[in-house]
Write a structure and sequence with these properties.
- The complex is a heterodimer of chains A (about 120) and B (about 140).
- Chain A has about 120 residues and is mostly helical.
- Chain A has a single domain, classed as 3 helical TM bundles of succinate and fumarate reductases, CATH 1.20.1300.10.
- Chain A is about 80% helix and about 0% strand.
- Chain A is built from 4 helices and no strands.
- Chain B has about 140 residues and is mainly α.
- Chain B has a single domain, classed as Fumarate reductase/succinate dehydrogenase, transmembrane subunit (3 helical TM bundles of succinate and fumarate reductases, Up-down Bundle).
- In chain B, about 70% of the residues lie in helices and about 0% in strands.
- Chain B contains 3 helices and no strands.
- In chain B, helix 1 crosses helix 2 and helix 2 packs antiparallel against helix 3.
- The longest helix of chain B is centred in the middle third of the chain and has 35 residues.
- The chains are: A mainly alpha (about 120), B mainly alpha (about 140).
- Chains A and B meet through helix 1, helix 3 and helix 4 of A and helix 1, helix 2 and helix 3 of B.
Chain lengths: ~120, ~140
């Protein structure tokens, strides 16, 4: 125990931290919309669910919520992975995997909601 | 120690349990659970969208496996609902910490209990609303 090496700053942490907060603030109204719509859907699922995304507000809020949650989730999962996986190769692999899943899910979800909006 | 090793956080067993560690660990656990469930829900929406005939695809069968799966699904849904409310409430608590408010030990403790209570009450209210609307 002669010397303790201190890892140099990568200068990217603050941006990550800020983006995590900005996406969190942005999701506050989106979650409120989600809870209110959920109660509306629960009243009459068979009648309301097929036409839910036909309403422009629901389509826009749904798309925003998918994008924001996948973004916020990527940032959060990245921190968990960085905290608990010590092997750097594995760590970067899992971070890439989470990004891949998030981007694919977000794009597929947006395409589906646009389709539901147009046919609904 | 090889150069490739990245330092890890102390693992969970090392902490003595108290309110602040519980709320913090729960914030992470619910966050990870929400990530996985949102991915699943979005892919379900994609599946739902591209079904050939939405009207005819709702299958009903009286098989016991189906009933067990439905019950498990309801339990999972309650867990995800609680996670969402908890992560939402505790996230707001974190945002207040970020602007420098609520660091006092007493206030932090009180807000921790408040967040847990709010999340529980909101979950009960939501489950209650769903049961009420389905029964009547």
């Amino acid at each position: 125990m002669s010397k303790i090496k201190i890892a140099p700053s990568t200068k990217t942490g603050a941006h990550h931290w800020l983006m995590q907060r900005i996406s969190a603030i942005g999701m506050i109204p989106l979650i409120l919309w989600l809870v209110l719509s959920f109660i509306k859907i629960a009243e009459d699922p068979q009648g309301y669910l097929p036409v839910f995304f036909a309403y422009p507000l629901n389509a826009v809020m749904g798309i925003l919520l998918i994008i924001a949650s996948m973004y916020h989730g990527s940032l959060g999962m990245r921190v968990i992975i960085e905290d608990y996986i010590s092997n750097k190769t594995k760590m970067h692999f899992y971070i890439m995997l989470v990004h891949f899943i998030s981007i694919t899910t977000a794009v597929a979800g947006v395409v589906a909601i646009v389709r539901l909006h147009l046919i609904g | 120690m090889s150069e490739k090793k990245h330092p890890t956080s102390p693992h969970l067993q090392i902490y003595r349990w108290n309110l602040s560690s519980l709320t913090s660990i729960l914030h992470r656990a619910t966050g990870a659970l929400l990530y996985v469930s949102i991915v699943a829900i979005v892919w379900y929406i994609v599946y739902y969208t591209y079904q050939i005939n939405i009207a005819e695809s709702v299958e009903d069968c009286d098989c016991p496996l189906r009933a067990i799966l439905d019950n498990l699904f309801s339990l999972a849904a309650i867990g995800v609902t609680f996670s969402l409310y908890y992560h939402f409430c505790n996230g707001i608590r974190h945002l207040f910490w970020d602007i420098g408010k609520g660091f006092d030990v007493k206030i932090a403790k009180r807000n921790g209990y408040l967040v847990l209570l709010c999340a529980l009450l909101l979950t009960i209210a939501t489950v209650g609303t769903v049961i009420y609307l389905k029964l009547f």
